């Protein structure tokens, strides 16, 4: 019995007796290499098919030029500076819209989630707006704000706001009730409760919203640029198609997806950083 | 022995909606409870499910107010929650984003202990519950038993006079449970806290309580208070197999048996209605 009392953790839990540190690190590196290799292989296969299929005449190479041709055209675009200009234009728009949405929707969502009356008051409105696709409102934005930067940033802002807002509201609303009971039993003030319980426990759900918004910011912007713009990747893609510069169009598309992947990776990394307590690392 | 906690004719009624209509009826959860708990005493409440044990603990914690009567703590009526009482929940209620250390400090932050002292004190109490070396683990990296130890350390760290425990070990396996029971007794003896403990397990009640309060089925009233005299329990290894222990167990089982069957009958009536 005394032995049991003196070493209770070990007696209770096997999970804690994990392999020694160096061994674990090695396993983790191997694991990462393997998954990394898996991803590389998948992409390599896709590119190989893309390269070979037009050359073998499986698809019309006018409409789907081989990857190498697209790459050449991408290089030309990059050298001429056109690629950078257009990418820059798009990035500024989508990051501004996205950033503004984060800055506005997170505090607003916290407020709405926290004050029940505000939530009750606003929920029908939220319901309506959330179910109105941002792209359907594109003409309205153009009408009101013209086809300049303002309308582009505004529509990205609009589209990004909803996932962040709704996730933040639900994050506040779904805080573990036993934690609320704990706080109440300790007679915590409203402010402390918010700061020490509600805010930290909301972080993961809020981040889910932010990640969704990140993807949306690019999607919506490209659509907007296709409709009316003089610069931007959406414009580049659309104009290339119009001028029948097909390799250049694909060059624009791959740039766009690369940016999308990169942006998402950054957000995922941030999310991991802030919610490391939630998911067991490596599990 | 002056009463540390005194229930004086305490009743709690809830308003409940009648199904299919707008009317409310009153539902009596506990009725006319009179009970004194001495300073430093370990009292266990047992009773059939739904008899109002948790309700009593909520009242004691100041989370709800009695419909009738009053509860005195050191002679003063309880008007709300406070740090003079610490609650240990069945579901641990640990903050998942904080480490074991951080969770214990959470309790201390509410009391205004300076930062430097907090870390020190948290380590002290983690040590008291046998978790030295696990300070930097997050709750998801701890077993159920360890989590409950952290929760106990948290409640003890801000030094309440009374510890309220609502089936704290119910979710644990038998072995962990027994070792935590012994641990709790040891801590109780060391710290001299008043403990009010709820359980469904008769063994646990006999093993821990200086007195076991048996409640009737709904509405909860005090049916009988059984004093348990087993000497110093932390000194005895096979306490649970002694004849004394068996006698107490049987006594409480008898008292509970009628109430449990009555409670089940009530439930059937409610379902049938
Ligand atoms: N807020 C509430 N509103 C309405 N009825 C309630 C409320 N809280 C508890 N009750 C009722 O009061 C009765 C006593 O509940 P309580 O949770 O105290 O029982 P208990 O003895 O702790 O049961 P168990 O052993 O199952 O935990 C139950 O019938 C329950 O339905
Ligand atoms: Mg209960």
UniProtKB/TrEMBL annotation, chain A:
Domain of life, source organism: Bacteria
Region named Disordered: 1-20
Membrane topology qualifier: Multi-pass membrane protein
TM segment ranges:
29-50, 95-116, 128-147, 153-176, 244-270
Q: Transmembrane helix: is it a keyword of this entry?
A: yes
Where is the protein situated, by its record's location annotation?
A: Cell membrane
Please identify the protein, giving its name as recorded. Answer: ABC transporter permease
> What single Pfam family name could you report for this chain, choosing any that match?
BPD_transp_1
Identify the residues that the record assigns to the ABC transmembrane type-1 domain, covering every copy. Answer: 87-271
Which CDD domains does the UniProt entry name for this protein? Answer: TM_PBP2
Q: What is its main location?
A: membrane
Keyword Cell membrane among UniProt keywords: yes
Q: Which family does it belong to?
A: Belongs to the binding-protein-dependent transport system permease family.
Q: Which UniProt keywords apply?
A: Cell membrane, Membrane, Transmembrane, Transmembrane helix, Transport
TrEMBL record, chain B:
Keyword Transport among UniProt keywords: yes
Q: Which domain of life is it from?
A: Bacteria
Spell out the InterPro entries in the cross-references: AAA+_ATPase (IPR003593), ABC_transporter-like_ATP-bd (IPR003439), ABC_transporter-like_CS (IPR017871), ABC_transporter_ATP-bind (IPR050166), P-loop_NTPase (IPR027417)
* Keywords of this entry: ATP-binding, Nucleotide-binding, Transport
One MF term in GO for this entry? ATP binding
Name any one Pfam family assigned in the record.
ABC_tran
What residue stretches are annotated with the ABC transporter domain?
5-242
Q: Which PANTHER family match?
A: ALIPHATIC SULFONATES IMPORT ATP-BINDING PROTEIN SSUB, TAURINE IMPORT ATP-BINDING PROTEIN-RELATED
User: What protein name applies here?
Assistant: ABC transporter ATP-binding protein
